[in-house]
Fold this sequence. Notes:
Elements: H1 3-23, E1 29-31, E2 34-36, H2 41-45, H3 56-60, E3 103-104, H4 114-121, E4 130-136, H5 146-157, E5 163-165, E6 176-181, E7 185-188, E8 207-210, E9 226-234, E10 247-255, E11 259-265, E12 268-275, E13 278-287, E14 295-301, E15 306-313, E16 318-324, H6 338-348, E17 350-356, H7 368-388, E18 393-397, E19 403-406, E20 409-412, H8 416-429, E21 433-435, H9 437-440, H10 446-452, H11 467-491
Parallel strand pairs: 4-16, 4-17, 17-18, 18-21
Antiparallel strand pairs: 1-2, 3-21, 5-15, 6-9, 7-8, 9-14, 10-13, 10-15, 11-12, 11-14, 19-20
Helix pairs in contact: 5-11, 7-8
Amino acid sequence: MSPRGTFIFLLAVLSTLAFLGALWPAGGVHFAGIQWSLSGPKELLWPEVQERVDISAIVALPTDTSALDTLATAAAIPPDSARTIAFVLDSSALPPLDERIRLHHPNDDRTVLQPLFAALRQAAGRGKPIRVLHFGDSQIEGDRITSYLRHKFQARFGGGGSGLVPVDDIVPSFSVERSLTGDWERHTILGKRIKDLVHGRYGVLTNYARFTPALPDSVELDGIIQEAGIRITPLARAYRSVGNYDRCRIFLGHHRNVVHWELAQEGTTLHSADLEPSDALQIGEVGGLRPGVPVDITFRADDSPEVYGISLEASGGVCVDNIGMRGSAAYEFTALDATLLRGMFAALDPRLVILQYGGNAMPDISSAEQASRYGSFFGTVVQRFKRWLPNAAIIVIGPSDMSIKGGEQFITRPFLEEVNTAMKQSCLASGAVYWDLYMAMGGRNSMVSWVEAEPPLAATDYTHFSPQGARKVGELFWSAFINDFAATSKENP
């Protein structure tokens, strides 16, 4: 091709791209699971320099970074005196963050959390722990963020243990290691359903595990006894209070024949029992555990029970459960078996539910109307939890900032602010407290600053927090929460 022909060809290609770029939607087009963006001529020739969001106050906010930063921290109050020593919050490190990170209350009524705060003041002296359930999407899976909140709750109000964990998971936990023997298979509300076994029995953790094949009741069992086990070990990297447990509870059920199970520590059997056939929830409990020592649980049966979760916990203080649901936008709550869920809720008796969602809804939202609909839907999720748990406080954590490529730069996802606003309005109207994570981390385009921080506070997918960022989020939320606690403690000594 001659130079003249080459020039004409390139000019034609550039003109076509410029034309398409001018017509292409500003937010891009979502197709085949990918957000397709195209720069216009203005962005290519005269790119606008994006001003970085200042997160220096967040970077400077100290966090507890290791297993040694636990009950011995200077700000912590020993559990046995938590009921008598007045708590004073040192908020000198919070400005200029305190207004940005505050909790938002229904009708600006901060007393909505007073029953929870009253219970927390008595937590150390109770015979059972005050339960906190932290539900969320992949932003919290693997005990991210939750582990930090658990550490702060237990350092302040006593308690210990990892709380509920599934037999198996798709990512390792920050706090405990699970070593499995036998043919365990994980079933989740978000996964592919087995033909002829469509049910909603997934429990509070939204998943269960079996060690024999899941079969319809019409299929006879082969009678071959199988054995499976799980060892749960607190990890050295975990916050120390994770190992401060003295009892184990197992939630299981729906097995056709007798199941034998045992619990041991360091080769010594502490419990051995048979579970009769059951089509309902059963709960096994073993006390007197040695803190910090791995727990071995063994099952033998020809028909595995559905194991909905295993909880290592202390007899008092606070217990915090991590319930990460990768890919979830909270729609799955409508499909869970209500009878099983109510049974587990009754046994756990949570006093606080934290719901952290919104991010997974974003790829499917392309208008303000859709954003409003999702916000309204989330209000119904809050109402559902209020019916399930009338004595529990509910705090909703909204979506974080999330970035996509806009021209040559990363910008906040289109309609994320509308989703955040809609969720906030709907949740407050439904009686939940709202924590605006989007604003707490800096607002519009702040994710870029989190990614570019040193060390990075977020991953280069411009969506998920790094381990350091997860601790920062935990510290920001805890600061808002304990600030409210301190204020109401002053008003109601």
